[in-house]
Design goal:
CATH architecture: Alpha-Beta Barrel
Oligomer: single chain
Radius of gyration: 21 Å
Number of domains: 1
CATH class: Alpha Beta
Number of strands: 14
Bound molecules: 5-hydroxymethyl-3,4-dihydroxypiperidine
Number of helices: 16
Strand content: 5-15%
Helix content: 40-55%
Distance between the termini: 44 Å
Strand order of the largest sheet: 1-2-3-4-5-7-9-12
Structural class: alpha/beta
Shape: globular
Length: 460
């Protein structure tokens, strides 16, 4: 992609607040490996990877980036980048193998070392409780479609907060509940591989309910970490101005954005989507909606591209003429500004973080370097889009690149690379790509700007 302005010139010129949090993100199943080490139980993704044809390259998470053994070196890289924060997730079955009852000391100790290792390196730990790797033992009892899982999750959240809440800056309950519900239970292309819209919407409700109950419980326990949730959101645009496409876009926006934002901030599901779902609408017990609408300390937004919808069927992204990433997703940074402005306009949002943003590109290792200009331009232009939202008054608090490392990209296996650090899977060697070098330099400039600003006399 040819950036609209020279890469170095785009983002550094923007003025971000002194306390703006810059980070990188990963998740447990995608990088940890050690799938059955030291008492870890199987997760739904361990099982799903064994389903013939489920993963494009037939791979699994058994080794992934071997992060469980290489965490110290990986945190050295995080420190070298100069970020303020590292967003990671806990593998629930590593710390509580069957999702209830006994805890696994070896698993808990791993996260203790990780959190302490981050703090020793001057990096704030941002912990996510559920980045999709539900213990298989809970799935065997119905998983997220079973209301009992809500209570198991609250116990797990309390256990983790009791152990790490004194040191982690932030706790996210769930990462992208839409993905768990729709890709996991409706289309079935992700674990647990169910194809049933009713179960999908029940799972979505239970994810939201467990989020609200966990926030209540952690606050009652005196947890000092900032608490919130992370949603995958996009502006949803009609492919044409026809009434049919506009209606379709409204429906998709309802299912992707309003189905999550309305209960979290308004305490109700959008009626047009409840009507659309009919018998597939979830069972909601009295009091559930008030529990879901807990005040949050932050909202995380994962943004990759816009959604374009047509009443005629799936939209072919090639039609737009925009650059596509290796996932086939349009590079559309304007959509991030548009989305953030809309969230600020339609909801009383707390401080917002872009908790994931980045691109899969085909990388080539040449003489020990990866000249990933496309990814660098992608990140720079999206940082600029966040800067524009800030300028227009959106309460932006942070930005995190997805991802620190190339890793297991779910149903795509290891074929898609999102990392700013290259992983050579056979040797597990890590190499900083040009995008990582760019991010490092950008953060150095941001620090210099911060220092220069704090040295100025206060305005009168
Ligand atoms: O890799 C995923 C991540 O686990 C969740 N958000 C989207 C990323 C890219 O597909």
């Amino acid at each position: 992609m040819t950036p609209k302005a020279p890469i170095a010139a785009i983002a550094p010129a923007l003025s971000f607040p002194a306390d703006f949090v810059w980070g990188v993100a990963t998740s447990s199943f995608q990088i940890e490996g050690a799938a059955a080490l030291d008492g870890k139980g199987p997760s739904i993704w361990d099982h799903f990877c064994r389903v013939p044809g489920a993963i494009a390259d037939g791979s699994n998470g058994d080794l992934a980036c071997d992060h469980v053994h290489r965490w110290a070196g990986d945190l050295d890289i995080v420190q070298r980048l100069g970020v303020d924060a590292y967003r990671f997730s806990v593998s629930w079955p590593r710390v509580q193998p069957t999702g209830s009852g006994a805890w696994n000391t070896a698993g808990l100790d791993f996260y203790e070392r990780l959190v302490d290792g981050l703090l020793e390196r001057g990096v704030a730990p941002y912990l996510t409780l559920n980045h999709w790797d539900l213990p298989q033992a809970l799935q065997d009892q119905g998983g997220w479609a079973n209301r009992d899982t809500v209570h198991r999750f609250v116990d797990y959240a309390r256990g983790m907060a009791a152990r790490l809440g004194d040191r982690v800056a932030s706790i996210t309950t769930h990462n992208e509940p839409w993905v768990v519900a729709v890709l996991g239970h409706e289309t079935g292309i992700f674990a647990p591989g169910i194809q049933d819209r009713g179960q999908a919407m029940q799972a979505a409700h239970h994810l939201l309910l467990s989020h609200g109950l966990a926030l209540q419980a952690l606050r009652a326990d005196g947890c000092a970490s900032a608490l919130g949730i992370v949603l995958n959101l996009s502006p949803v645009q009609p492919a044409s101005p026809t009434p049919a496409d506009i209606d379709q876009a409204r429906l998709e926006d309802g299912r992707l954005v309003r189905w999550y934002m309305d209960p979290l901030f308004h305490g109700r599901y959008p009626q047009d989507i409840v009507d659309f779902l009919g018998a597939d609408a979830p069972q909601v017990a009295s009091g559930d909606m008030a529990i879901i609408a807990q005040t949050m300390d932050f909202l995380g937004v994962n943004y990759y591209t816009r959604a374009v919808v047509s009443a005629q069927g799936p939209w072919d992204a090639h039609q737009s003429g925009l650059e596509l990433t290796d996932m086939g997703w349009e590079v559309y940074p304007e959509g991030l500004t548009e989305l953030l402005l809309r969230l600020h306009r339609d909801y009383a949002v707390p401080p917002l973080f872009v908790t994931e943003n980045g691109g899969a590109f085909k990388d080539r290792l040449e003489d020990g370097r990866i000249h990933d200009a496309g990814r660098t331009a992608y990140i720079a232009s999206h940082i600029a889009a966040v800067g524009e939202a800030l300028r227009q008054g959106v309460p932006m608090a942070g930005y995190m690149v997805w991802s620190l490392l190339d890793n297991f990209e779910w149903a795509s296996g290891y074929e898609k690379r999102f990392g700013i650090v290259h992983v050579d899977y056979p040797t597990q060697q890590r190499t900083l790509k040009d995008s990582a070098q760019w991010y490092r330099e950008f953060l150095l400039q941001q620090r210099a700007l911060r220092a220069a600003r704090s040295a100025l006399p206060a305005r009168v």
